Amino acid sequence: MESITAFFKRVQQLLQIPHFSWIDIVEVIIIAFLVYHIIKFVRSTRAWNLFKGIAVVLVFALFAAIFRMNTILWLLGKGFNVGIIALVIVFQPELRNVLERLGRKNFLSLFTNIDWQRGTTKRFSDKTVNEMTRAVFDMAKDKTGALIVVEKDTQLVEYIRTGIDIDSLISSQLLLNIFEHNTPLHDGAVIVRGDRIVSATCYLPLSDNLYINKDLGTRHRAALGLSEVSDAVVIVVSEETGVVSVAENGLLQRNMTPETLKELLKTLQNKGQEESKISFLRGRRKNAEEVDQ
């Protein structure tokens, strides 16, 4: 073993390979993982164009350094500190989105099948699943616009406060009555927590994604906007076409059927089995539309 170790050390010296330990390998893997996910996230937002603009400025700075353009380098150096602050201000929505997604990640589930954050309790009952599905497709048949938010782990208190308190058990008749045309509560979103409708006529944040299909209206933009800043699932019924869509994690799945919607709600119902089932369902939904493409 000593001779083998001496041989590899000799080869390392001849090839001038720097000494590294397993800690260095772990660091490289972590940095590569972070850089990959940062670039993947930035490409799906408006920050990508700004990122390309920054790359152009860096190339220009390199060009100035090579040809020793001291005045330009001085100006770039003075503007560097201000530029960092400006970037934080410009990318504030994206940075907030990244931190919120990071906070929702369950890193223990990457290394073990045990999910420490989720129990086996149900978010809502089978009756709630059936009542919501029936109401959604009754409204779709009559082309009644609707916006139903299903709260998950992230509390939506700030959006609940913008509406009118309901605090009632979910029923298809109540949902139909809320979204009926020319009624006091039809405008805005309904927020569902567990088996109860918490609030109606709630205002949701509109998505600022520039790549959203221009055919989508305010309801769909509001659904996407909330799904970008929380883990909620938002059901949308189009008033123009009667098409049922679901917004989740910044993605819009269109042309839902009663079967696929009920399957999705069943997935959300069981906290402990949610992650594996959602990934399975997404593989089956060929009609899902990724709005960031």
Folded structure, characterized:
By secondary structure, the chain is an alpha+beta fold. The protein is 52% helix and 13% strand. The protein has eleven helices and eight strands. Strand 5 and strand 6 (244-248) form a beta hairpin. The protein is elongated, with a radius of gyration of 25 Å. The termini are far apart. The model is unreliable at 108-120 and 273-293 (pLDDT under 50).
Helix percentage range: 40-55%
Low-pLDDT ranges: 108-120, 273-293
Query: Termini separation (Å)?
Result: 55 Å
Q: Element order, helices and strands?
A: HHHHHHEHEHEEHEEEHHE
- Write down the overall mean pLDDT: 80
In short:
With 293 residues, the chain is of the alpha+beta class.
What structural keywords apply?
single chain, 293 residues, alpha+beta, eight-stranded mixed sheet, 11 helices, 13% strand, elongated
